[in-house]
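User: Hello! I'm new to structural biology and keep hearing that structure can be predicted from sequence alone. Could you demonstrate with Winged helix-turn-helix domain-containing protein? Please show me the input and the output so I can see what each looks like.

Assistant: Of course. The first part below is the input, the amino acid sequence of Winged helix-turn-helix domain-containing protein. The second part is the output, the predicted structure written as tokens.
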Amino acid sequence: MRPLDIGVLGRTSVLVDGDEAAIGGPGPRAVLCRLVVSAGLTVPDDELIDAVWPSGPPPSAKVTLQGHIAALRRALEPERAAQHARVLLRGGAGYRLVLDADAVDADRFTALSERGRSELAAARPAEAAHAFEQALALWRGRPYADCVDRGFADGESMRLEQLRVDAEEGRLEAELALGDHVSVAARLAVFTREHPLREHAWTLLATALYRAGRIGDALAALRSARDVLAEELGTDPGPELEALQNAILRQDPRLLAVPERVEVAPPAPGAHPGNLPAALSTLIGRSHELDLIATLIQEHRLVTLTGTGGIGKTRLAVETARRHGGDDGPWLVELAGLHDPTLVADTIAGALSIAANGNPAVLLDALRRRTTLIVLDNCEQIVDGVAEFVTTLLRACPDVRVLATSREVLQVEGERRFEVPPLSAGAAGEAVELFAQRAAAVDPDGAAGLDGARDAVVRLCADLDNLPLAIELAAAQCAVLSVDQLATLAHDRFVVLRGGPRGNRRHATILATVQWSWDLLSDAEKESFTALAIFAGGFDLRAAMLVTRSTDVVAHLDTLTAKSMVTVVGGNPRRYRILETLRRFAERQRTEERTTELRNRHAAWVGELADEAVDALRDARSAQWMARLSAEHANVRAALDHSRDDPAVSLRICAGIYWYWYRTGHTTEGLRYVRPVVEHWLAADDADAAPVRLRIFTTIGLAVLSYLGGDLATVGWALTHLGRLATGADDPVAVAEALTTLAYFEAGGGHVAEAEQHAGAAVQLARDSGATRTEAEALMSLGTAHLRAGDLDRAAAALTASIEAAERSGNAWCRGSSSWLLAKCRVAQGQFGAQVDHLLADALTHVYAEGDRTSWIVKLTTLAYVRFRQGRTQHAAELLAAALHQGELIGYSPVRMDPVDVGRYVGEMTGQPDDVAAARGRTLTHPQIALLVQDMG
């Protein structure tokens, strides 16, 4: 904590020993900003007067200036008399500031940005990304926001804005070097639209697209750059763009090169960065509460923040966790959209990237070895389920602490409750300061007038019971209403609604705030808002248009976001979200018939996603669609929950989504939906009305998800049913998929003759139908059957053909799996040369990009064995330790997936341990592991 912290990257602020200091209205703020701009030089009185009164000073200007100086001295040095001032000093005919080098946020931002550029130049992208992230986190709004109408700050504001854009570009360049090609490409597309004249950004975009396998899009980006530069500047592209285009056209392998390995201090064993979201706005006040909660977290393993909706529980919890820090986490688990208590463990496992596969024991075993803080947010709707699991978690994992937010306590032994209070009241209170900052953000031109209306703001905040959410919603209306109008309107509405449901006065007030915001909407906006609230977890523009069927939805989204009824959460295309409190309010405004109509449209839209996902998850769009379905996960769940009485809709969705559930390890959730669908259509009198293709896919889903869940009895039952469906089906591709699945499980169970027969038939059906994707997977099953039969030459031939078919169809999952199986085949033949090394390295790269972590760990273990048999024992020990450690951290064992081969590999290697190399391997990050993987010796 700095003794003095001056903020100019947004509205002017002063922190003294961490506490906000009152610096007064526009006059003192202008004086302080003018002195900060001078960077320690003396500013004459006349220049300070010009800064305060740019249109001409009043006769009392000099006297008033002295009053501003006195007020600033009291704020900057509250414990020091004016004659002993050390910060704001008189010199000659003016004043100057004497500050520490890091006292001003703009100076810290500049230093961090320079550090980021230095780290980039030194080929240390991780350090560069961290520096740029820290720099950009300092920004709270427009530089010198209090002085936008005063010319003295214009030059410095423009300089800082330019540096901010440079830092954003630098961060993207660093993240690109770290290998995050798909995400960076999407963000660079937005960046180049916003800053089209930055040539280097265009080269970064094209490079990211190329590395993501989108060569055509990379060349299109370069063409766009050429067109923009010609139209806007009348110039041709520079040498950097020209050189990149030539390199892409000849597919220069150097474009895919990873940065040279740089020795850095290894992270602590088990270190994880956590998943806390970056703060998008400044937390106003709350220093006392943060200190109290931090103390409670140290003394108690479970602390629950309680209070009414909108009082700021989540923000306090996240900020507490951020300050808590630690090498492992902290981790945020959002439970607001969860209504099934049986999914609590799975949701926690997903947030922590632990592959529990629906088994809470795996999650507990992984956490038993970790020291971390977990934030469970919005527990109230499943409080009993959360309480039950937290009790088990705390008993089993002695070094795990939990910070929960809920409208009621969990009632767990050892729990410490903290009731979150409203913001402090009064003219100098936190509530007024929050309103002022948020209002200035939506109406910078009116910010100066807020000081004159401070009494009205105090009354408004009091009417809102000083609740943060209510104040945020009120401040958002400052673009269209004055403070006096807001205060009058708020008072009128709260007289009616105060003392609402359950007699909870604060709850009634937050409902009144939402009702008041609702009343400011037009009828058409209300209709759009209630329709959009049918989405769970978020939505994009296309989904909004399809479900609402409104031609004005774009315009309505603009006004609804401006009025804080809808939140923009970023992405390309942009995604939107409606707060849970507002969604619940919207439900109250709809008739039952309207809700049914919207739910049916929503389910139809999810059904369309599922229809496309069937192919997209197994072709070149796989990575993109895995990310898309992750974003729409809550919508898929909501559609299935609302369609329980419509088995045809449930069948359509499950048939397309099961593969996503399988690859992400959402076993329990997938089975929760798939099993009743399969059972219904098996027993239904009108089963012939359901497309057999969908029934086959859903039954495959039941088999593979049950396999992941360890329910072998259900696997056998599902396979028997699958065989009957395939016999009577007239869809050759669906039959081929069924036979492929049967063959794979038959081979694993030792029934190799049946497996070879079914896989061979599947290959022929797929070829006759031109279904190359299915052909690739059928060949993989055929190769697996030959491998288990001991016919290694035929296995190698089938798997090689599978890889070729997978490449033609863009089936990255099959390509990676067949490459791994072919490598195992070569190992069984006693081959450990470069071909096997390349097969596994290629497979590892592709499965990691696809987000398939469990397959990545198994293949990494296999590569370790190949290096071991090559005599590269140190490499092998490092890779094996890295693989096993990564598996431990997510509760997964590669031996469990493949006990026959991988179990034997691990057994051989652990018989000849290299403790030093193994210790080093356990500390490796993914980029460091990737460097070892690509080291072909």
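User: So the tokens describe the shape?

Assistant: Right, they're a compact way of writing down the 3D structure. Reading them back into a model, for example: Residues 832-937 form one domain.
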